[in-house]
Structure formats: C-alpha cells, structure tokens
Specification:
The protein is an alpha/beta fold. The protein has nine helices and nine strands.
Length: 286
C-alpha cells in the first residue's frame, strides 16, 4: 500500500485524497522528496558517471553482489516484490533482476543523477526518488535491500523502522554496511559516512525495530589487513571518494579471485567474526 509522503495516510493515487498533496514527477521518476532530489549533502552526484564505469569490474562490488544474490535466493526464494533502497547506479538491481526474473523490482535513490543510470541497467524496474527516512509504503514488499546505505544516515533506526513497515509479514531485509570503527579514515569522510558499525550494532538496532535477525556475518575478511594499511595511508589531500576503486587490472583480478574463495566459504554457512564489511539478513515475522 502506498502512503502519502506528506500526511502518511494511504494514497493509491498520485494526489492524496486526504491532504491534497500531489506526487511530482521528473524525467519519468516519481519524486517523494523533491526538495532533496538535487541536493548533494556533501556528496557530489556528478561522480555517478565514473562510479558506473568502475563498479562492474571492481572486485568488491562483484563479491558483494554474489553474497546479496545468494542470500536473497536462500532466505527469500519465493519473493515476488523487491525494493532496493539507495539503488545508486542500479548495479545490484540488475543482478537481482537476473536472479528473480518474474518479480516486481523497485529501486529508490535520493538523487536523480543515480536513477538515470539505474534505468539503463535495470530497465524493467520501477524507479523513484525517495528519502530513506520516509519510505511511503506499508505492507508492500517481500524483500527490501539497503546495500551500503544506512551508514550514510544519522537516524538509521528511523530508516530501519520504515523498512519494517514497508515489508509484508513474512518478508525480510538484507543489509550490507562498513564495519569496525577502528577502520575509520578520511575515505569514510569522503564517502559521507556517519559511522562504521560495531560488530552486533546493526543487529541490535534491527531487533529494536521489530526484526528477527536470521543471518549475520562479516566479509572482506581475508583482505582486512591490507584494507587497514590502505586506510591508514589516506590523507586529507587525497580528497577523492573513488580512490579505492581506481586499481590496476592485474591487482583487481587477483583480489577478485581471493574474494571468490571467501564467498564460496560463506555460502557454505560459515560466519566470519571480523571483516571490512558486514552482511545481515532479517525477517519481519509480525
């Protein structure tokens, strides 16, 4: 059920029958937070073009996609409706579309620049501009994903509670987040992160918001020492949010092989205690 982003009451039509609010559109996208659609909040939307050109081949994005698709298939194999909150350029949406060809696929992004790329990558998805703290749906989706999104938002618990509301009973959510505050560096500042999560922190917040945690593990574990060294080497004058993505082909191929092995281990059910990132799967039981 769609809700009015202004009064939060059921509103199946673009114009709310209760308060008269009209959902605007731009470039074919519905705008649920139009006042933020072109605001960067410290993040330069112009980097979407280069991001889109780099992420398909980058070892970390490839590894993350493998884990996301594996968890979606394992824990929610009959999902018919999926929403990715903060879909960026649509790289994960495209992978989910291939994994769930018969499902209704939705993607949201705060900035319009990202949605233009997502439309090309996942042409069958329904895309919208939306603020994750005000998801205008209730009992609507089987699965909601947020992949390296909630660490950007100060009030992450509000996002989690809105996601819980937007899920159907029996549905669930999949998250990836950066882990370990001791890894905090200038690179996190450049990426507009407000936190790196402690082990168990996201899980506790999910339970507080009504979820049941069904799976949780670290990943990028094998490369953690190299990641720690790399993060300590970042200086403020290196102000480049895509710095870590610009690596040579040989290095990228070797790291991809390493993380393929790690992903194969994780798919057997092994849970790793430490790692640069964390993956959590949670369900809405009531």
């Amino acid at each position: 059920m769609r809700l009015c982003p202004n009064c939060d009451l059921p509103s199946p039509a673009k114009r709310c029958a209760s308060c008269g609010h009209l959902v605007e559109t731009s470039a074919g996208f519905e705008l649920y937070a139009p006042h933020q659609a072109l605001q960067g909040h410290g993040y330069d939307p112009a980097i979407y073009a280069e991001l889109a050109s780099l992420e398909d081949r980058h070892f970390w994005f490839r590894a993350r996609n493998r884990l996301i698709v594996h968890c979606a298939r394992k824990y929610f194999p009959r999902a018919q409706s999926l929403l990715e909150v903060g879909c960026g350029t649509g790289q994960v949406l495209r992978a989910l579309a291939a994994a769930f060809p018969g499902a209704r696929l939705h993607g949201s992004e705060l900035f319009l620049e990202g949605l233009a790329f997502a439309r090309d990558r996942a042409p069958g998805a329904q895309l919208m501009q939306m603020d994750a703290t005000n998801i205008p749906f209730e009992d609507e989706f089987d699965v909601i994903g947020a992949f390296d999104v909630v660490e950007h938002i100060e009030d992450d618990e509000r996002v989690l509670s809105r996601m819980h509301r937007a899920l159907k009973r029996g549905g669930g959510a999949i998250f990836t987040v950066p882990q370990h505050p001791w890894l905090w560096s200038e690179q996190d500042v450049l990426a507009c992160h407000v936190r790196r999560y402690e082990r168990g922190e996201l899980e506790a917040k999910l339970r507080k918001c009504g979820f049941r945690v069904v799976h949780s593990t670290s990943f990028v574990t094998i490369l953690l020492p190299a990641l720690a060294v790399s993060r300590r080497a970042v200086r403020q004058r290196d102000a480049d949010p895509l710095r870590e993505m610009r690596i040579g082909n040989i290095t990228n191929t070797l790291l991809d092989i390493v993380l393929r092995g790690e992903c194969a281990l994780l798919r057997t059910g092994v849970r790793l205690p430490v790692g640069g990132s964390r993956l959590v799967v949670a369900s809405k039981d009531s």
